[in-house]
């Protein structure tokens, strides 16, 4: 997938994943990778930025497999931001789809 397209949808996929349930970083990398090919070096800076922008809260939870894990939880502001991104995504895909369809028929 084109890197610019990927970057554009990555925030929405991350926010929606955490909206479904709280996740820790590596778990989130695995979940997002089901939709968009990403690695830890892409996800962790995004998580840090979204946390700094107060769209996520974090907390530690003990792990049976090593040190405690940092979990991400979507805040009310994060839900509103996610909803805004989804609306923008839907409008964009509808317009681009209509444009492409018009080009085929025109």
TrEMBL record:
InterPro entries: Metal_resp_DNA-bind_regulator, Tscrpt_reg_PadR_N, WH-like_DNA-bd_sf, WH_DNA-bd_sf. This is PadR family transcriptional regulator. Residues 14-78 form the Transcription regulator PadR N-terminal domain. PANTHER family: PADR-FAMILY TRANSCRIPTIONAL REGULATOR, TRANSCRIPTIONAL REGULATOR, PADR FAMILY. SUPFAM superfamilies: Winged helix' DNA-binding domain. Pfam families: PadR. It comes from the Bacteria.
């Amino acid at each position: 997938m084109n890197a610019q397209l990927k970057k554009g949808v990555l925030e929405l996929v991350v926010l929606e994943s955490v909206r479904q349930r709280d996740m820790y970083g590596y778990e989130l990398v695995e979940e997002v990778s089901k939709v968009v090919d990403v690695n830890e070096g892409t996800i962790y800076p995004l998580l840090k930025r979204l946390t700094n922008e107060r769209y996520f809260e974090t907390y530690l939870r003990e792990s049976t497999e090593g040190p405690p894990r940092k979990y991400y939880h979507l805040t009310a502001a994060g839900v509103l931001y996610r909803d805004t991104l989804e609306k923008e995504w839907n409008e964009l895909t509808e317009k681009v789809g209509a444009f492409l369809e018009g080009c085929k028929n025109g």
